[in-house]
Amino acid sequence: MEDYRKINQGLKLDKDTFITIDDLIPLATRLSQGLNKLSEYKYPLDVRRGVRSMNSEKESITIKAVGRMYFLDVKETKDGNPYLIITESRSKSEGKERERASIFVFQENLREFSDAIAQMADKLGL
After folding, report:
1. Contacts of 10 by beta carbon, 8 Å cutoff, 6+ apart
2. Other C-beta atoms within 10 Å of 109: how many?
3. pTM for this structure?
4. Stretch(es) of the chain classified as CATH 3.10.450.700
5. How far is it, in rounded angstroms, from Cα 29 to Cα 61?
6. Where are the beta strands (DSSP E) in 1-126?
7. CA-CA distance, 126 to 115, in Å (whole number)?
Protein backbone atom coordinates (compact mmCIF):
# COMPACT_ATOMS: atom_id res chain seq x y z
CA MET A 1 0.00 0.00 0.00
CA GLU A 2 2.73 2.48 0.92
CA ASP A 3 4.30 2.10 -2.53
CA TYR A 4 1.08 3.17 -4.24
CA ARG A 5 1.05 6.42 -2.25
CA LYS A 6 4.58 7.19 -3.34
CA ILE A 7 4.01 6.25 -6.99
CA ASN A 8 0.68 7.83 -7.79
CA GLN A 9 0.26 11.38 -6.59
CA GLY A 10 -3.32 11.51 -7.90
CA LEU A 11 -4.61 8.82 -5.55
CA LYS A 12 -5.06 9.64 -1.88
CA LEU A 13 -4.72 6.29 -0.18
CA ASP A 14 -4.40 5.28 3.43
CA LYS A 15 -3.63 1.86 4.89
CA ASP A 16 -7.24 0.64 4.78
CA THR A 17 -8.08 1.83 1.26
CA PHE A 18 -9.28 -0.85 -1.13
CA ILE A 19 -7.56 -0.52 -4.52
CA THR A 20 -9.33 -1.48 -7.74
CA ILE A 21 -8.11 -1.83 -11.31
CA ASP A 22 -9.96 1.38 -12.13
CA ASP A 23 -7.74 3.18 -9.61
CA LEU A 24 -4.59 1.91 -11.30
CA ILE A 25 -5.52 2.54 -14.95
CA PRO A 26 -4.30 6.18 -14.92
CA LEU A 27 -0.99 5.05 -13.42
CA ALA A 28 -0.61 2.26 -16.03
CA THR A 29 -1.40 4.73 -18.81
CA ARG A 30 1.22 7.18 -17.51
CA LEU A 31 3.77 4.37 -17.25
CA SER A 32 3.05 3.14 -20.77
CA GLN A 33 3.40 6.65 -22.23
CA GLY A 34 6.67 7.17 -20.36
CA LEU A 35 8.11 3.86 -21.58
CA ASN A 36 7.13 4.66 -25.16
CA LYS A 37 8.87 8.04 -24.94
CA LEU A 38 11.94 6.46 -23.32
CA SER A 39 12.18 3.89 -26.14
CA GLU A 40 12.77 6.74 -28.59
CA TYR A 41 16.07 7.70 -26.93
CA LYS A 42 19.36 6.41 -28.32
CA TYR A 43 20.53 5.20 -24.88
CA PRO A 44 17.33 4.62 -22.88
CA LEU A 45 19.07 2.99 -19.92
CA ASP A 46 21.20 6.10 -19.35
CA VAL A 47 18.14 8.21 -18.60
CA ARG A 48 17.88 7.88 -14.84
CA ARG A 49 17.80 10.29 -11.96
CA GLY A 50 21.35 11.16 -11.00
CA VAL A 51 22.85 10.27 -14.39
CA ARG A 52 24.39 13.39 -15.84
CA SER A 53 23.31 14.05 -19.39
CA MET A 54 21.73 11.80 -21.93
CA ASN A 55 23.13 14.03 -24.68
CA SER A 56 26.72 13.02 -24.07
CA GLU A 57 27.39 10.56 -26.87
CA LYS A 58 29.06 7.38 -25.72
CA GLU A 59 31.52 5.61 -27.89
CA SER A 60 31.63 1.86 -27.41
CA ILE A 61 33.20 -1.14 -29.13
CA THR A 62 32.47 -4.76 -28.24
CA ILE A 63 34.87 -7.56 -29.14
CA LYS A 64 33.56 -11.12 -28.85
CA ALA A 65 36.06 -13.90 -28.23
CA VAL A 66 35.71 -17.54 -27.19
CA GLY A 67 34.44 -17.49 -23.61
CA ARG A 68 35.16 -13.76 -23.23
CA MET A 69 33.93 -10.38 -24.28
CA TYR A 70 35.87 -7.14 -24.30
CA PHE A 71 34.23 -3.74 -24.08
CA LEU A 72 36.01 -0.49 -24.91
CA ASP A 73 34.05 2.55 -23.77
CA VAL A 74 34.86 6.25 -23.85
CA LYS A 75 33.32 8.17 -20.96
CA GLU A 76 33.85 11.56 -19.33
CA THR A 77 34.93 12.60 -15.86
CA LYS A 78 32.84 15.11 -13.91
CA ASP A 79 35.20 17.77 -15.24
CA GLY A 80 34.43 16.75 -18.84
CA ASN A 81 37.75 15.01 -19.54
CA PRO A 82 37.43 11.84 -21.65
CA TYR A 83 38.86 8.50 -20.54
CA LEU A 84 38.89 4.92 -21.82
CA ILE A 85 37.51 1.93 -19.93
CA ILE A 86 38.60 -1.52 -21.11
CA THR A 87 36.46 -4.25 -19.57
CA GLU A 88 36.88 -8.01 -19.88
CA SER A 89 33.87 -10.18 -19.11
CA ARG A 90 34.37 -13.93 -18.91
CA SER A 91 32.37 -16.92 -17.76
CA LYS A 92 33.13 -18.35 -14.38
CA SER A 93 33.71 -22.07 -14.34
CA GLU A 94 30.57 -24.17 -14.06
CA GLY A 95 27.84 -21.60 -14.30
CA LYS A 96 26.24 -18.70 -15.99
CA GLU A 97 27.87 -16.13 -13.74
CA ARG A 98 30.42 -13.82 -15.31
CA GLU A 99 33.51 -12.15 -13.91
CA ARG A 100 34.37 -8.62 -14.92
CA ALA A 101 37.62 -6.72 -14.69
CA SER A 102 38.18 -3.15 -15.89
CA ILE A 103 41.13 -0.91 -16.66
CA PHE A 104 40.73 2.86 -16.74
CA VAL A 105 43.09 4.76 -19.06
CA PHE A 106 43.00 8.52 -18.69
CA GLN A 107 43.63 10.97 -21.49
CA GLU A 108 47.14 11.92 -20.37
CA ASN A 109 48.28 8.26 -20.55
CA LEU A 110 46.38 7.18 -23.65
CA ARG A 111 49.11 7.81 -26.26
CA GLU A 112 51.70 5.86 -24.24
CA PHE A 113 49.19 3.05 -23.61
CA SER A 114 48.29 2.89 -27.32
CA ASP A 115 51.96 2.80 -28.34
CA ALA A 116 52.63 -0.04 -25.88
CA ILE A 117 49.70 -2.05 -27.27
CA ALA A 118 51.01 -1.53 -30.83
CA GLN A 119 54.52 -2.67 -29.79
CA MET A 120 53.17 -5.82 -28.18
CA ALA A 121 50.99 -6.56 -31.23
CA ASP A 122 54.13 -6.29 -33.40
CA LYS A 123 55.93 -8.75 -31.11
CA LEU A 124 53.03 -11.16 -31.54
CA GLY A 125 53.36 -10.83 -35.30
CA LEU A 126 50.07 -9.01 -35.85
Report:
1. 26, 27
2. 13
3. 0.52
4. 59-123
5. 37
6. 59-65, 68-76, 82-91, 98-106
7. 14
